[in-house]
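Re: the pair you flagged

First of the two:
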Amino acid sequence: MKMASIPHPELLIVQVNETRIDAAGAINFKERMRELTQDNGKRVILDLSGVTFIDSSGLGAVVAVRKSLGPDRPLELAGLTSAVEKVFRLTRMDSVFPIHTCVPVGQSDGV
C-alpha cells in the first residue's frame, strides 16, 4: 500500500496515497502503518484525504492500528472524504477517533 510518513516536531503524519482501504488491502495497510510508526513515539495523524472508499475490513484495520499504538499514543484522523466520514459516523467510530477536517500542523492547542 502506498503511504508516506511526514515527521513534524510534535507529531507524525501518515498519508495514505491510495483511494481504497478495503478487504484486499487491509493487512497491507496494518503492516505498512506498523513500519511507519514503530520507531516514532509521537502523536500519529492518519491523513485519509485521498481515500474515497473504506469497507468494514478497512475500518477494522484502522481500529487495529489504533490498538497497536497503545493507550498513550492515540490515532487521530484527518481529511476524511464524505464517503469515508459517513462510514465512521454510521459505525459510531467518529466517537472513538479524534477527527480533524484537515491535517492540524502547527496548531498550539494540540488539536
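Second of the two:
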Amino acid sequence: MNVKDVIIVGGGAAGFFAAINIAEQNQKLKVAILERGKEGLQKVKISGGGRCNVTHAEFIPSHLVLNYPRGEKEMLGPFHQFMTGDTIEWFEKRGVQLKIEEDGRMFPITDSSQTIIDCFVNEAERHHVEILYNHAVKTIKKEGSLWKIETSQGDFHSKKLLIATGSNPKIWKLLEELGHTVSQPVPSLFTFDIEDHRIKDIPGVVAQNVEIKVIGTDLFSEGPLLITHVGMSAPAILKLSAFGAIELARRNYKFEIEINFIKKSFEDCLDTLKQLKHNLAKKTIFKLAQFELPKRLWQKLVLASDLNQESRWADLNKHQLEVLASQLTQAVFQVNGKSTFKEEFVTAGGIDLKEINFKTFESKLHENLYFAGEVINVDAVTGGFNFQNAWTGAYIAAKSISK
C-alpha cells in the first residue's frame, strides 16, 4: 500500500505552490503530487504569452476582490491572509524578481515563464516533494481515516488530500460522487466574434478608452478595445466576458453590444460636432480624426454615418450630425459567437463556494479534503488575478494541512 501524508491531485500552479509550502512548513510530512500529464505546469508555461503573468500590482484586498466575478465576497478574508505583496516576497525569497508593467500586470524580470517553472521544480526537489507524472486519477474514496486515490499507475492512500486540478470535468464528477455540488463550467475569458463593415479590414486598431454595455442586461465595462480579424478583444471585452460568463452562455453567445467610443454623452458629442462644423468648415471630415480616435476607426465610423470621403464639415446637416454622434457614442454591434482569449482557458464554474471553509480551504463536507485554484467556483478577469487566487488558496490550504 502506497501511503503518503499528503497527496495533491494536479501538477499545476496551485498544486506545486501548495506542495512546496506544505513540505517547507512541516518537513516530517511525505508529500506527493499526482499529475495526469507527462509534464506539469502547462498553464504557467503559456500564461501571458509565455512570460507568465504571476500576479497584479493591486495591494488592497477590498480593491483586489473587485476583479473576481465569482468569489468576490469569499476571497476577501483569504486575501487578508495571503496577498499580492506576499506573492512577490515568496518569489523574491527564492531568487525570482518580479516587475510591474504599466497596466499593473506583474511578470518575472526574465520575461520567461520558464523562470517560474524552474523555481517550482527546484523548490519541490529541495523539499523532497514526490512528483508523479502520467498518474490520471480514476476514483477518490474515503477508507476509514484515509483517502484512497486510484490512478492509472496504481493506488495511493493519504491522510490529507488537496485537489488542485483546475477546470477538470472528470475530477468534478468524482467530487460530485462525494456529495459536493459543482456549478457547471462555462467559458469566462473570451473575445467577441463580430462581422461588421465598421471594423472590417482594420485589425490591430485600438480605441484606448471606451464604454461597452450588453443590450438587455446590466453588464457594462470600460477600458481599451482592440479590433481583431474576427471581432473585438482587449480588457473592455474580456471584463464583459468574465462578469457576463453565465448570462452570455445562456444567450448562446448571440447578443448585441452598444459601444461609446469617446465616453461622452450623445448630447455633448453633438455639441462638439457642431463646433467642429463651425471651426473646420472647409476641411473634409474623413481625413482628420477627432476625439483622439485612431484614424482608421474614425474613417470607418464617418463612412458608416452615410458620409463620403469628400464630405466637408460645412456640408453636414442636422440629421448627418446626429447620425455621426450616434455612431461615436451609441454604436450597436451584433455578436455571433466567441473565441478563446489566447491560450488562457479560464472557466466560471467549480465546487460550490458554500461548501468550502475559506479560513482553511477545507471541504465543509469531508474532513482532510482541501481545494485550491480554479477547481472551486472562483475566477477573475485577465491580468494575473487567476494566479493570485491559486497562490492564496494554495498557501492557506498548505498552512492548515501542515499543522
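The chain has a mean pLDDT of 96.

-B.
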